[in-house]
Amino acid sequence: MTRLLTVLMMVAGLSVPAAAQEAAAPAEGAAASEAAPEAAAAEEEEGEEEEEGTAATAYDATGKFDYGFSGIMARDNRTDLAPLTLASGQPVAGGNYTLKSGGFYRIAINADGSQELALSGGDFFRAIWINEIVINDIEIRPMGVHSIEFDNAGTAIISFVAITPGRYTLSVPGSSGDTQQAVFNIQ
After folding, report:
1. Residue numbers of the chain with a pLDDT score lower than 70
2. Nearest-angstrom CA–CA distance, 186 and 18
3. In Å, how far are 12, 55, 84, 90, 126 from 138, measured between CA atoms?
4. What is the pTM of this model?
5. Termini Cα distance of the chain
6. What is the 3-state secondary structure (H, E, C) of 116-174?
7. Cα torsion at 62, 66, 68, 69 (round to 10°)?
8. 29: left (phi over 0), alpha (psi -120 to 50) or beta
9. 62, 123, 124, 139 - which has most CB atoms within 10 Å?
10. What span, in angstroms and rounded, lies between the C-alpha atoms of 87 and 170?
């Protein structure tokens, strides 16, 4: 019995919004044409009251977020980071990177082809929004990345916006040395 009452109450609760939408919708035909002039008259009266009283308030956020016409993705807002290096026996990065959340960055990853190497860092890639990855003048706009692997010599350029604050690493899979990783601190 209680299950039946519960089901009936759920059905009644779900049908109320639908009934309210049907009642609010104007009727077809003559009733619809009668409702339109009334709505227009009401809008005119509201407009007259605004003119007599105070003007409508407009909120403008240009002072805080004035990035220009192209927004945050403009070249003027982009910071080029020191490149990462993938070479057998060489350190990946010269030091730690400190990034600001909301900042637009570009970093090059250079591989010399001395060994098949990759950079892996799922946590880092989830903490940023990748605008594009450029490889041999081919632009890729991925939904997500976990790692980048180089079989031969080449360069990949990643442009991204740092999002989630924290400490993240990009490291060569299977390596344990501190020189085989790049540390990114997003503030």
Report:
1. 1-71
2. 47
3. 57, 52, 19, 27, 23
4. 0.62
5. 58
6. CEEEECHHHHHCEEEEEEEECCEEECCCCCCEEEECCCEEEEEEEEECCCEEEEEECCC
7. -40
8. left
9. 124
10. 15
| 156 token code pair | 């990949």
Give the dihedral of Cα atoms 72, 73, 78, 84; nearest 10 deg. 130
The closest of 122, 139, 73 to 102, measured between CA atoms, is 73
**Structural domains present in the chain:** 2-52 (no CATH), 74-186 (2.60.40.420)
- For every residue of 49-101, DSSP letters joined together read HHHHSPPPP----TTTS---TTGGGSGGGEEEPPPEEE-TTS-S-SS-EEE-T
Nearest alpha-carbon partner for 108 in 87, 86, 75, 89: 86
Structure confidence by residue, pLDDT tens digits, 89-117 = 899 999 999 999 989 999 999 999 999 99
Residues in the chain: 187
Distance CA 182, CA 85 (A): 10
Place of tokens 């503030």: 187
Please give the single-letter amino acid code of residue 122.
G
